[in-house]
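for the record, two folds in this file. i put them one after another cuz i was lazy. first one right below, seq on top, structure tokens after. the second one comes after a little note so u can tell where it starts
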Amino acid sequence: MAYVNSYGSNEYTTAAQRKKQQLSRLAVSQQPVQTKAAATKTQTAQTQDPYAEYKAVLAQQYKAQKQAADAAYNSSKNSLDKAKTAALRDAYISYMLSLRNMPQITAAVGKGGYAQSLAAKQQLNYQNNRSSIQQSYLDNLGSLRAKKDSGLADIDNSYHSTLASLAKSTAGKSTKTTAAASPQYTYTLAGTSYTAPQFVAHLKNMGMTQKEIANYMNAKGLTL
């Protein structure tokens, strides 16, 4: 059982935990690769995918990004729903208050055409308010859905484009000469630069699982 000191922190942590804590505090930067690698190499038939771990982290990050987009949409929609309910309630209260004054108006002017016209006008205003609230809600909801769909499309395009690039870089038969794969970004951590696969491998060596790597990348605002 770990001892908790007076500051509320554990006195004893595992080496893996200390590495992860250190990583979370380090600044990391991401730079787009300006030019493709010019070097070529002769590839022999491969029995394993060299980007398997990299693809697994990509998949985790892809899933996390889509879940975040869904969560943001649901939160915004919930706010819209609450605002609509409150607006409809206020409109109803205003309408009922106006009806409460009708007996006084009828007593003053009688039950003639003016009183009937006023009652009809108040009811029409209430129905118009309800319609306006509903239309505003639908307009905002449509914009919210369009924003979500656009964001999901960007996530899908980025993910599948990266997979296609990786597949292209590993395509070919044995002894076929191909250009070395060029990653989309390089990453600088503690003064050391890494390509995307190297960066993922480094984080894994530091004790991170694939899910933890994906969460780390998202938390730092990094893209694979």
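(here's the note) second protein begins now
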Amino acid sequence: MGPSVTGFVDEDMMVNYMYLPLTGISPGPVMIMGTATTQGMLDLNIMLDMDLVKENTPPTISIETNLQGEEAEWNLDGLKFTLSGNVIDPDGQDVTLMLWICDGTTTNFDRQNLAWEIQVSIANCIQNDVQSPYEIIIKATDESGGETTRLLQVVDPNAGAVDNSGDGDSDDGDDESSGILPAPGLIATLLIGLVAAGWVSRRHD
């Protein structure tokens, strides 16, 4: 049952217009119920069916961003990220949420009043060799079937990272090979020594 409104009839028996708010009323057929009261008269209960129908208004989804303007907060392991926001249904109906990523779905949302939060794994993306950015779809559905969809793309900050760990090994190999060869100064010393030894031997002869 929706909110009640009180109207008054003036002395000339002219009925004032009454505006009936639809806040808090679920979508669908609307019946009008009321009671007429006055001094010296029994209460008169009325019910009016005027073929009124309240249309459904779909829910709205908002997604929060961080100081960098990014919607995803990545875990340190780089395999999960967190999304958060709010979902509001103007008609006050319960709303279910669903998320799609890399052909996988999840409904594992943490809900508190209007706020929601979800941790999303990219394991399915890695298994299916889906590259960043990842396309995310979030759908909100109310009790009357009204739907709202949000589409966003999440960029993996670790995508395209280059592993330079192999460079150190090649440097070590170069150091080892260079350590096997004698230093240039040592070669010059040996040559001078050999020349001097030959000169002395010729003088003795």
